[in-house]
Design brief:
By secondary structure, this protein is of the alpha/beta class. The protein has one domain: sialyltransferase cstii, chain A. The chain contains twelve helices and nine strands. Helix 5 links the parallel strand 4 and strand 5. It is globular and about 45 Å long.
Length: about 260
């Protein structure tokens, strides 16, 4: 068994291009079971942004063949179902279970609802190996369907972006490696407005004052360092402009200046 080291961030990275992605995309479509699950389906990925609040898009979201949520997006909070929907068919979980990160893995609830668990990070790359291995050991009891992104695919994407992509970005790029019919992306603002409180409330996790401080510090260190956002914005923009399967919500179009 060989565990690779994640590429270091590189501000001089070449950047994401659609043509280069088409070249490496075949590396992603290695999971035949996952491909059959996705084949010909309309899929929606629901992000963590407060921009979905008050929009009343719950029925629109649930109307897709498959609904994918990210990290603490599952289970959904009943009070916001009208805005973000109720169904979850695919749960993209980073498997790092600290509450300020991916959060708890809800095995029982996912088993009951028939959720397909997808890890947006590859097992055989550090620092993800221990998290994925721990999940696999626990999942022996539950038998949840489980998928991880392809190692070579992830490494190529990280190198081109010069940063570690977020779970949400990787969910999009992983799904598009497969034969789905369409992909709608909503609730992504690259953390301009933080997170929905129903998704992640740092004040609830750490206490009000400390939570506010940690949220500012965490966003500054993670989103300008480990998870630089600008390259990921460019990735989504390029995908939207070039892949006929992809559509994005109006807030995202405004941010990316593609209206």
């Amino acid at each position: 068994m060989r565990v690779l080291t994640e590429p270091k961030g590189n501000q001089n990275a070449p950047g994401f291009s659609y043509s280069e992605w088409l070249r490496i995309r075949g590396n992603g479509a290695y999971d035949s079971e996952y491909n059959e699950f996705l084949r010909g389906k309309s899929v929606i990925v629901v992000g963590a942004s407060p921009s979905l609040e008050g929009k009343g898009l719950g029925s629109f979201i649930d109307g897709h063949d498959l609904v994918a949520r990210i990290n603490k997006g599952f289970p959904t909070t009943k009070g916001v179902v009208g805005d973000i929907g109720s169904r979850t068919d695919i749960h993209y979980h980073c498997l790092h279970t600290k509450e300020e990160c991916g959060g708890k893995v809800f095995f029982e609830e996912m088993k009951r609802e028939g959720v397909y668990v997808s890890c947006p990070y590859p097992k055989f790359v550090q620092p993800f190996y221990n998290d994925v291995s721990h999940f696999e050991r626990e999942n022996k009891e539950w038998g949840l369907r489980f998928h991880t992104i392809n190692t070579e695919y992830y490494m190529s994407l990280s190198k081109s972006l010069g940063t570690r992509p977020n779970s949400g970005t990787l969910a999009v790029i992983d799904l598009l490696a497969y034969d789905l019919a369409s992909l709608y992306v909503t609730g992504f603002t690259w953390f301009r407005d933080g997170w929905r409180k129903s998704y992640k409330d740092m004040g609830e996790i750490f206490g009000k004052e400390r939570g506010k401080l940690l949220e500012r510090q965490w966003q500054k260190s993670q989103f300008n360092g480990t998870h630089s956002q600008k390259p990921q914005e460019q990735l989504i923009k390029e995908i939207y402009l070039n892949d006929s399967r992809v559509d994005i919500d109006q807030t995202m179009k405004y941010i990316l200046e593609v209206e």
